[in-house]
Amino acid sequence: MKIEIGWTKQCACVIGCPLLWRALIVGRMFDVVASPQVEAHPGNMGGRDFVDRVVAAGERKAARDQDRNRRRAAIERAVRMPALIGAGILALVAWWLSGWEMWPWLFGGVGGLVAVLIFARRLPPIWRLTVPLLVVGVWLLTYVDPWWWVLLAGVAVTGAGVAALVTLRLRVRRWQTLTALALGVVMVATGWAMLAVDAARHARQTQQELNQAHDDAVARILPHSPGSMVNFLAERIARPTPDAVADACFVFAPAARQQLADARHVPDCPAAIGAMAAEVTAAGDYVNNLSLPGQASQPNPDGTLSVDACHLDFSGLTDDTPHANPGPQIGLLTLAQQHGQGHLIVNYRSCPSG
Question: What are the DSSP E strand ranges found in the chain?
Fold first, then answer.
């Protein structure tokens, strides 16, 4: 009876204990204690077989766990250096794409390294460098267009697929390898295409901003009133240096430049300004004694101004001997205000004959 009770306790221990070594100890104890009684009690053979099966199952599980741990350790050792290189490349590429941001390196890199040294001192040295580099790379990617994430992920997936293809040669994991390759190529193509679209959109936006800035700058330097426009032209016509001629043509819109040239029967605006300058007989009087009559400027329904510069008055107030006709009449001008500032000549007609 004592032997049976002892065997029952041992069997209960085997069933209840989750640890393999206890099962092994119980099995050995059963061999010592119960073996003399097995011959006397053949009915106990079933209990011994059960213990043997439990012990064998524990041994097989221990072997599987040991094999799994060896594989995991081998994989971990194999990926250490590729992971470090990949993390370094990711951090450098993301640093370049982010415009050389420094804060992720200072806080993510240095801070991550300090945190790893304090809280994960048992990590291998390579992983102590890899983890901060990964933190820096991910942080820097937050400054980057998300389509770069897709492109970089596609490059990584494609690289993994190529490595698997070279290593396994489609003998095993064929569909997984082909799927990784196809997915990586699609991600690379999609990321590249969307980055090109974004670049074109940014280029258009930048060009629009530049055009707006240029138009604002031009509007600021254009003459701000009909009288100042007429005086501006008269000064350039009276003294037609190359810069003066260019300035005179600058206040004409492209269509108005051609209208001026056609009215003077010359090929272009500089030639037209030169033809008008040839008619100046007294440059000082033409510039200093010129005045625009008060009714010469009239608003139009479309917001433009019509300026009659065909009846310019040269009877100067300070000159006792003015010239009656020191230079040419300029013509009929239509002015359009630009961005609420200066005016541009958008239409030109020659003065009526007679």
Answer: 297-299, 305-309, 331-337, 343-349
Largest CA distance in the chain: 155
**Residue 245 Cα to chain centre, angstroms:** 45
Amino acid making up residue 315: S
Three-state DSSP state, 350: coil
Type and span of the H or E element at 347? strand 343-349
CB 237 within 8 A of CB 312: no
Q: What are phi and psi for residue 252, nearest 5 degrees? A: -100, 135
The conformational region for residue 223 under phi > 0 = left, psi -120 to 50 = alpha, else beta, is beta
The distance from CA 96 to its chain's CA centroid, rounded to whole angstroms, is 11
Query: Could you give the angle at which helices 125-141 and 45-97 cross, rounded to 10 degrees?
Result: 50
Stretch (H or E) spanning 153? helix 146-168
Helices (H) and strands (E) in the chain, counts: 13, 4
As averages over each run of 10 residues, the pLDDT of the chain (354 residues) reads 44 43 48 46 60 86 90 87 91 93 92 88 89 94 93 92 84 86 95 95 94 91 93 94 94 95 94 94 88 87 93 70 76 93 94 76
Entry pTM: 0.56
3-state SS class at 349:
strand
Kindly give the interhelix angle for 226-238 and 269-277, rounded to the nearest 10 degrees.
Answer: 80
Token pair belonging to 26 = 């119980």
